[in-house]
Amino acid sequence: MNNEMAMERELTMEFARVTEAAALASARWVGRGDKEAADDAAVQAMRSVFDTIRMQGTVVIGEGEMDEAPMLYIGEKVGSGEAPELDVAVDPLEGTNSVAKGLAGAIAVVAIAKKGGLLHAPDMYMDKIAVGPQAKGRIHLDAPVKENLANVAQALGKSMDDLTVVILDRSRHDKIIHEVREAGARIRLITDGDVSPAVACAIEGTGVDVMMGIGGAPEGVLAAAALRCLGGEMQGRLWPENDEDILRAQKLGVHDINKLLTMDDLVCSDDVFFAATGITEGPLLKGVHFTSQGALTHTVVMRGKTGTVRFIEARHRFDKKPAYAMKGVQ
């Protein structure tokens, strides 16, 4: 085994440790009504574990601009400072409201690629559609909802009324919700966090076939990284609400705000890693379960180069955890 391959294998498991730490920290806040405290705990834990990893990482999608976030901000350097140079996209707590209210679907998530491998998505909305490998090439963001769903159903060998579409429960989606129902497909409305269902489209047995609608642009890149590993597809287009959003996109190098973003725009190569750990129960991952001695976590780790997907069920002993891994855990 050459040194590069050995390092990549090491990084795969190291990124699992990163999301596990964030999930363990934020899970203490499930149902306690304080989404800021939950997010802060996840950020602190994730940042601490990043410092132990042999890499030279730069946060390209994070908790905001330098003046908006104390850590994991855009442009921050993470890792030990050793090679390789990597772009880092993070969402230490995807689904803050879900954690605060004790609802399903919250995860801690990272995506890592070689420098220049990820779209530097501004903190704004993106219109998206995501499917798994079987329906790759059968969707188009600008196509009518019914046409997209018919094509996906055909690709999956399903009838329309067996198709399940996940959509964020927002008033801006009233039109597509009506169109999905008119087409005859089933809908699963979610309150928060569209990374997990987008990834679930590409994993058999999750019960999710399509994810569509307007959600966060950074979350779109995170999900696209996983779909790149899984052979699925996402298309998107930035959805600015005001001139400030347009200026923010231009600052990050996105000048054509109306461009249809394909997989090659979102994640430009297979040299990408993705890791996510469940915080609360969801279609993709189990949530954190606390025990008398520690906790159980459920993590998925993917590597684009090999297409390998690992689900990891870990038992954590809090009395044996190093201090950095327990940051934010109360």
Automatic annotation (TrEMBL):
The pathway that the record names for this protein is: Carbohydrate biosynthesis
Q: Which UniProt keywords apply?
A: Carbohydrate metabolism, Hydrolase, Manganese, Metal-binding
InterPro entries xrefs: FBPase_class-2/SBPase
The entry's Mn(2+) 1-binding residues are D39, E63
What Gene Ontology cellular component terms go with this record? Answer: cytosol
Biological process, per Gene Ontology: fructose 1,6-bisphosphate metabolic process; gluconeogenesis; glycerol metabolic process
Reactions mediated catalytically:
beta-D-fructose 1,6-bisphosphate + H2O = beta-D-fructose 6-phosphate + phosphate
Question: Which residues are listed for substrate binding in this entry?
Answer: E94, G95, T96, Y125, R170, S171, R172, D192, G193, D194, G216
The entry assigns this protein to a family as follows: Belongs to the FBPase class 2 family.
Official protein name in the record: Fructose-1,6-bisphosphatase
What are the leading ranks of the lineage?
Bacteria, Bacillati, Bacillota, Clostridia, Eubacteriales
